[in-house]
């Protein structure tokens, strides 16, 4: 863990690093880093594990909102009810092709990753072919789904 977090948190018996400084009213750690206000768990994830994808939340596997241990943080979908809604829409549409294992949330993530890596690498991440990724990026696949994604938001 980076000294920035080590110096400002306390290691708990369960492995959590509890933030020692400011807290938001919602109970998350907050700090100013490079002139920008951050939730400490989001900053920790970004600095240790990589970019935050648009629309995604950083979740605590330990349920400790003050924890900044990157091992306890994972990127997840924003709201359960939203992904539930999306899944239901998808089921109604009944996509029968082999692409159907991608959820709208994943398509959104794939689009967000456009330009950050090769189609092959992104494909590996989502367990689909390089061609599928390229087609999504070119917009020739999932047109309906992308349209409905716009409606969801
Ligand atoms: Zn923790």
What does it look like?
The chain folds into 2 domains: 3-87, Homing Intron 3 (I-Ppo) Encoded Endonuclease, Chain A (Alpha-Beta Complex); 94-152, no CATH class. Strand 1 and strand 2 form a beta hairpin. The chain starts with a helix and ends with a helix. Helices cover 42% and strands 14% of the residues. By secondary structure, it is of the alpha+beta class. Helix 5 (119-126) packs across helix 6. It has helices at 3-6, 40-49, 80-93, 104-112, 119-126, 130-138, 143-152; strands at residues 9-11, 17-19, 30-33, 36-39, 57-60, 73-76. The chain contains 7 helices and 6 strands, in the order H-E-E-E-E-H-E-E-H-H-H-H-H. The strands form 3 sheets. Strands 1-2 form a two-stranded antiparallel sheet. The chain has a two-stranded antiparallel sheet with strand order 3-4. Strands 5-6 form a two-stranded antiparallel ribbon. The structure holds zinc ion. Zinc ion binds at residues 16, 62, 64, 67, 69, 72.
Short description, anyone?
The protein has 153 residues and is of the alpha+beta class. 42% of the residues lie in helices and 14% in strands. It is elongated, with a radius of gyration of 18 Å.
